[in-house]
Amino acid sequence: MKGILKKIADNRNYLVSLALSILAAFLIGALLMMVTGYNPAAGYSAMLKGAFGSSRVFGNTLAKMLTLCLTGLATAVGARAGLFNVGGEGQLYLGGMAATVVGIWLCGLSPVIVVPLAFAAAIIAGGFYAWVPAVLKVKLNVSEVITTIMLNSVAIYFCTWLCNGPLKSADKGISGATDAVPDNFVFGQVIARSNLSTAIFYSAVIAFLCWYIMEKTSIGLEMKVTGKNPRFAFFSGLKKDKIMIWAMVASGAICGLVGMFEVYGYQHRFLPTISNEFFFDGMLVAMIMNYSPLGIILMSFFFAVIDIGAGAMELSTGISHELSDIIFAIIIFLMAAEGGISRAFSARQLQKKARKKISMDAEKEVQKG
Fold this sequence. Notes:
- The chain has 15 helices and no strands.
- The chain has helices at residues 2-10, 12-35, 40-52, 55-80, 88-105, 111-140, 144-164, 199-216, 218-228, 230-235, 240-267, 278-288, 293-317, 322-336, 338-368.
- It is globular, with a radius of gyration of 24 Å.
C-alpha cells in the first residue's frame, strides 16, 4: 500500500493532468451534445446505464476491459525494454487461429489435454510472430515499428485466407469462418447472456504477473534500465539484446492469448472479424498511462465503460456512438501535449517567482537607501 501511495505522489502532476484532460473531454462532449440538440445529462446518464444498468451489460463492460487491459499490458512489456510493438493485432490473429486449429483437430480428446495445448499454441504463435521483428531490430537495427505494422497485414490476410479456404466451415449458413470449437473446450459464462467468460480468471493471473514482474523483480528493473538507456545497460553487463527479444516475445505471447480468449470465451469459432483493432485501443491505453501496469488496468476499465456505454447511449438517445471516439481522441491529444504544457507552465511559474524576487530585492535596496 505504501508503494502505491508513493507512486501516486511521484506522479501527482501527471495524474492531475490526466484528470483535467478527462474532465475537458467530457465537457467538450457535453458541448457537442448541446450544439446538436441533445441533453448532455441524459446522454451521460444513458452511457452509465449502458455500462452498469444490468448484470449482463456490466459483464460486457468487464469483458471489454479485459481485452483492453491485456493488449495494453502487452504494449507496456515491450516498451519497458525499449521496443515498440505495433504488431499485436497480427499476433492476436495468429494466436486465435492456432488455438482454434488445436481445438478442431483434437476434438476427440479430453479438455484437460486440449485446452492447455491451445494455450501453448496461442502463446507460441503470438510469441514467434513478435520474435521475428525483435531479432531484426536487435541484430540488424531494422525498425520494429515498420516490421510489426507490415506483419499485421500478413497475419490478418493469412488467417482470412484460411477461413475462406482450407479451414472453411462446412456448416450451412456459416460463411468465411472455421468450424466451431467443441462445446466442452470453450470457457463457461460468468454472467449469463454476457460476453464475460471464465477467461477473466486467466486474464487476472496474466495481469498480476505482468505487474509483479515489471514492478517487483530484478527482471523488471533490467527491462527498465535497458529500455531507458541501452548503452548504460550494455556497459553494466546486462544482456540487453536478450532482454529486448524476450520482452517482445512476451508481448506477442500475451496478444496471442487474447486471440485465444476471444475464440474460446466468446466467438467459439475463428472469424476474420475476431478483432476490431483491439490491440490499437489497448496500445493507446498503455501510452496514456505511461506504460504503468496498474494505471493500464484502471484506465482499461474507464475506457471500457465509455465504449460499452456509448453503444447503449446511441440506442436510447440517438446520440452517435462516435462521441466516445471524440472523447478518447481529446484525452489522447491533451495527454500527448501534457509534457509541453507542463514545461511551459513551470517555466512561467519560475519567471513569476524570479520577477517577484527581483522586485522584492529592489524594494529592499530602496528602503536601505
